[in-house]
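My current task is to audit a protein record that another person submitted. Thanks in advance; the entry in question is below:
***
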Amino acid sequence: MADTLRALSATAVLALTLVSAPPAAPAGIGSRAPTWAELSPADKQILSPLASEWDTLDTDRRQKWMGIAKRYPKLGPQEQQRVQQQMRSWAELTPAQRQAAREQYKSFNKLPPEKRQNASEKWQEYQQLPPEKKHELATRTPGTAAQPPAK
């Protein structure tokens, strides 16, 4: 359960990154995304967490990842590290977890702007928590409130 929550948390981060990132260039009629062998060495290095499954991804997914790879060099070192971690987390998800993340992303995009902003702020607050507090929240049974310490 905690692993699933952690995985979904990682996908939420990726979804928020994709929400704030400009879209990749649209595909033209008959266009396709490159196979792994056709990628430049720089793109292969950036997209390395996806290497084992790259050629099984559909064209739209590959083009979205290529859009991220094209923006990657402009990111600062910490942001690059974060993107790499998110790609590794995404690559470790099961197809069902990925689908859940996509649905979460779609739901997030349907929120009114003020609610999206509130959700982003809450996520930032969560990101600032120490690891032990994040673990506590991930293992808490849904719908239960935190219990005050015993005296």
